[in-house]
Design brief:
Two copies of one chain form a homodimer. Chain A is α/β, with parallel strands linked by helices. Chain A has 16 helices and 17 strands. In chain A, helix 8 crosses helix 9.
């Protein structure tokens, strides 16, 4: 039986026998290992063609086929990233689908053999491109690189992600801004839902290009409106895909609004499937979301803020540009969170960042990503040990400090 | 006897006994191990307080306390740099002498425990700052960072380099531009010589700040004028310091002019002391200079050109921006020169460089520096084996190819 299930997603439905083999193996992709009694937090394993991923997990963002400033070796061996993100929008524009196809997919192109998740490009089309035009068909947009015109549809973003070959791919959605009128969000959710049906259809009609199973995740939208979020969560849950995502949060709304929406949505999204909170957030955001049943995260914060000289530590955040660190020769993080945090001093890192030296961005990025990965790993341990809530409450307090 | 020699440079000449102990230990710093019979090439060991350096050697440039874009761990463990360069001009301006003093010197500040050589700042004062004013006393210049006014003298550049704590420090010199009038160069050389006497005096009057022996190298100037170069080489040789440098080359003059000047100067500089050719150059330049008796090199070329997408290989140079590499998925360097050169493809590196991704600069820098370090290591082996000249001739031909 398990062998039949395993074959399900690999084989096209050319006949009756094949149809039988294509039964979903939903219960296989995500195994819940333990649950916290005081919260909705849980630990699990996400199974992908490129390896297993322990959850809760944070996924470093590798927008254009590179986690900015970090060698793949350091990403796997030192930071211990289990899965990274790629972006359909960026990869489609550069290097382009033809090159990725010739390379044998993104894994081979960028020499990364662990799992990859690709965002559909929805968020980027709406945040990076001017003069975009939205139709029922899809989104017409201009490249932020050279102004050239392109169209993304629910179908072609599946096709592109098939070529990219990510282990987890996302349905094309519209991410409404915040704040936003109810009526705009209502229409936007309806469009995202219509697009989802088309994305699922295309996904089911096509096979992985590289022979490795891919999972499609749909995205709950609805802004900060509870009823629209409920409607969207029900639609997304009904799609019956192997995992589900929540988009359109951490776009400017207060953290409490975000937490409320997570609760509203997670009460509807199936409990036995992984829940991915897109583009979130601060270390405290992660812990609060884990508490509410989220399993997966991505965010540019550890790398982008790191490049600007912001460091996350277990005692709070450090703005390394602050003059107070100019002659502080203590380690970047005395707790030794990463391979760099005890090697280099705050004064040295400050010197690099103030001088615009790339090494400063590299050290800060390695440190911050290591911190995020260690944080979710520790959350996992605490959930398993049964003392997550207490640990979370004390951590959230410390993480909010400014050193 | 050897113990007496060893103490020579450490102790101030306050009395007769101290004077006896201050005899030079010239023969100790540089040990020549083998000589090529067909050329002036030789191999040796430079002994410093932070470790031995096999020669010929190439020194990666770490201008402001960082070899741009490279973790110190990778610099030592992967690239196998034996010694790196720092720059007095940059370090004096940022982080500044006070911070370096509080840190315990540059080695501790930047977490690098292998040898360091610091340039005196002469070249930078003349190449980076506008409105500089030259007097017998020294050079008045404006910071390229904030326009603030500063003065460098032969004395204070020794003092600053004492605080920095580099193993090898350089005398303050004027580096004349090319092309340049004979009379300008003649006066410039006279000034550099007058400055040298003052630098040597200050050097002998002061002790290492961090208790680790430092060596002062003077710099031969004289543009492309043989008689001025001879005069300068004689002056520098007569200073009797532990090693000697040749400056003012590779500033625009044809390579053959440079090689001729090296021959003129090396015929005068003592054969038993290390010879450092400053700011040179291409891989072929290195081999031709080794052939003419040069032992030490530094140059920004492997890192700066790397950042611009130029890669050095044993088969010639690659401009990775060239469209021909867009779908070339073969390794950056099939010879596996560095830890990155077989991991990443030309197409991927091109994608990174074209996208302005820092990882592109990092990969190219690691590759190029590894190539330079391997080139001088191979030269060393060929000299020891007695077939340097033949190898050099075939290498220079290949290195000049454009792939």
């Amino acid at each position: 039986m398990s062998i039949k299930l395993f074959h399900y997603n690999f084989i096209r439905p050319y006949g009756k026998i094949t149809f039988v083999l294509r039964k979903p193996r939903i219960t296989d992709m995500f195994l819940i290992e333990s649950r916290d009694k005081e919260s909705k937090a849980r630990t699990g394993i996400l199974k992908t063609a490129h390896g297993d991923i322990p959850t809760p997990i944070f996924m470093p963002v590798g927008t254009g086929g590179t986690v900015k400033g970090i060698l793949q070796r350091d990403l796997s061996d030192d930071i211990d990233a289990k899965i990274i993100l790629g972006n359909t929008y960026h990869l489609y524009l550069r290097p382009g689908t033809e090159i990725l196809k010739a390379a044998g997919g993104l894994h081979k192109f960028m020499s990364w053999d662990r799992p990859i998740l690709t965002d559909s490009g929805g968020y980027q089309v709406f945040s990076l491109t001017g003069n975009r035009k939205l139709t029922d068909e899809g989104a017409i947009f201009k490249s932020h690189i050279d102004g050239s015109r392109h169209v993304f549809t629910p179908e072609n973003t599946i096709d592109i992600q098939r070529v990219i070959g990510a282990d987890i791919i996302m349905a094309f959605d519209e991410c409404a801004p915040w704040p936003c009128e109810y009526n705009y969000v209502r229409k936007s959710v309806a469009l995202t839902h219509q697009w989802l049906d088309r994305a699922v259809k295309r996904f089911r009609e096509t096979d992985p290009v590289w022979g490795k199973e891919q999972f499609l995740f749909p995205i709950v939208q609805g802004g900060t409106f509870d009823d629209l979020r409920r409607e969207s969560a029900e639609k997304i849950a009904a799609a019956g895909l192997e995992g589900n995502a929540i988009g359109g949060l951490s776009v400017g709304e207060p953290a409490d609004e975000m937490y409320r929406i997570i609760e509203v949505v997670n009460a509807i999204l199936p409990d036995n499937k992984p829940r991915y909170l897109m583009g979130v957030g601060t270390p405290a955001n992660l812990l609060e979301a884990i508490d509410r049943g989220i399993d997966m995260f991505d965010c540019v914060m550890p790398t982008r803020n790191g490049r600007n000289g912001m460091l996350f530590t277990g005692e709070g955040t450090i703005n390394i540009r602050n003059r107070k660190w100019i002659d502080d020769f203590s380690p970047v993080d005395a707790a030794g969170t990463s391979i760099v945090s005890q090697v280099y001093s705050k004064a040295y890192l400050r010197h690099l960042v103030m001088s615009g030296e790339n090494l400063g961005a590299q050290i800060a990025s390695i440190h911050n990503l290591s911190f995020y990965l260690r944080l979710v790993k520790e959350a996992r341990i605490k959930i398993e040990e049964g003392n997550f809530r207490k640990w979370k409450d004390s951590m959230v307090k410390k993480l909010s400090e400014r050193l």
